[in-house]
Automatic annotation (TrEMBL):
Keyword Hydrolase listed: no
Organism: Paenibacillus lemnae
Residue span(s) of domain N-acetyltransferase: 8-166
Domain of life: Bacteria
This protein's record includes keyword Transferase: yes
Protein name: GNAT family N-acetyltransferase
Molecular-function annotations in GO: acyltransferase activity, transferring groups other than amino-acyl groups
């Protein structure tokens, strides 16, 4: 079956997903998409920072995790309980097939049902495809930390984007 027509199931992450999610982090988060590559010291270290249920995963009909959307409260303060911070990663072999959009749509619906009213994220200025994707999902630039990172001798802005959820 063509990957564009595969059945994709969206569900919360489970303990059994940890190895594949760590692999996705290694595939996706590099010097073009993050200030530094993301490498986990161990499975335990990963699970400490990304416990089961803290991501939505996109699973193909052949049981392969094609991507995920991670989320967490931005602070421990009650005054920001209406907000989720998020990040999204799709395996390069599955990109541009609508999986990111499916994850984002499912997460926006779930966050709205939970009573959240704002989603926020950060993206590097060197990642125009991600910026365009987030804009297509309703995110707008809310701020910019100019020359926040120096990656391989090049200064990059850290763009802060948000999406307000409406009923």
């Amino acid at each position: 079956m063509d990957t564009c027509q595969r059945l994709i199931t969206i569900r919360f992450s489970e303990l059994k997903d940890a190895a594949r999610l760590m692999e996705l982090d290694h595939l996706v988060w590099d010097r073009n998409t993050a200030p530094e590559p993301l490498n986990w010291e161990s499975r335990e270290h990963y699970l400490l920072h990304c416990p089961p249920g803290s991501q939505l995963v996109a699973v193909t009909d052949s049981e392969e995790i094609a991507g995920y959307l991670g989320f967490r409260p931005p602070t421990g303060l009650d005054s920001s309980a209406h907000v989720y911070e998020l990040w999204i990663a799709v395996d390069p072999a599955f990109q541009r097939q609508g999986i990111g959009s499916r994850l984002m749509h499912a997460f926006q619906k779930a966050a709205r049902q939970e009573g959240k009213s704002k989603l926020r994220l950060r993206v590097l200025s060197s990642n125009p495809r991600a910026i365009a994707f987030y804009r297509s999902c309703g995110f707008k630039e809310e701020g910019r930390l100019v020359r926040e990172y120096c990656v391989q001798g090049r200064y990059l802005d850290d763009i802060l984007m948000s999406c307000f959820l409406s009923d």
